[in-house]
Amino acid sequence: YCVCLSLLPGFGDSTGKPTEDGLTADAVCVYEWTEERNGTTPVCLWGHSLGTGVATNAAKVLEEKGFPVDAIILEAPFTNIWVARINYPLLKLYEIAHSAYRNKERVKTVIFPPGLQHTFLCKAPHC
Fold first, then answer.
1. What is the pLDDT of residues 101-122, one digit of tens each?
2. CB neighbourhood size of 96 (10 A)
3. Ranges for the Serine aminopeptidase S33 domain (predicted)?
């Protein structure tokens, strides 16, 4: 299942302004909706770029509610925390995920080969 960003506040043709709480609530809602219908298939949160903050925060909220996600994939997360801290308040993603998730050994950082840049990580051989 997918959520279309054009339906979220402030994206595409939608009105309103995106907020951290609003995007997190939307991600949690979509995850819970999917989880209710998935049977035994694992469900993961996949965030790209700024979406990595949303995915991490949603996973933290779900963990606090007692429903840890099966997996979190963070594609092209922030690489310069100082610049990200100034511009985006959803920060220190690895630390947040590590502190929020009960199974600490499952929180990992995967380094992609150089040359794929921000947009082409999906072309990595192990994806």
1. 777 787 777 666 777 766 666 6
2. 17
3. 10-87
Distance separating alpha carbons of residues 50 and 54, to the nearest angstrom: 7
Residue 110: exposure state from Cβ atoms within 10 A (0-12, 13-18, ≥19): exposed
| Nearest alpha-carbon partner for 70 in 46, 48, 94 | 46
Sign of CA dihedral 100, 105, 107, 109: positive
Please, are residues 43 and 27 in contact by the beta-carbon 8 Å criterion? no
Q: Which residue has the tokens 């996973």?
A: 59
Q: Which helix (H) or strand (E) holds 46?
A: strand 44-48
Under DSSP, is residue 1 helix (H, G, I), strand (E, B) or coil?
coil
Residue with tokens 């979190």: 72
CA distance 91 to 85: 6
Alpha carbon distance 36, 5 (integer Å): 21
Maximum C-alpha span of the chain: 41
- Average pLDDT, rounded, for the chain: 75
What CA–CA distance (Å, rounded) separates 93 from 14? 28
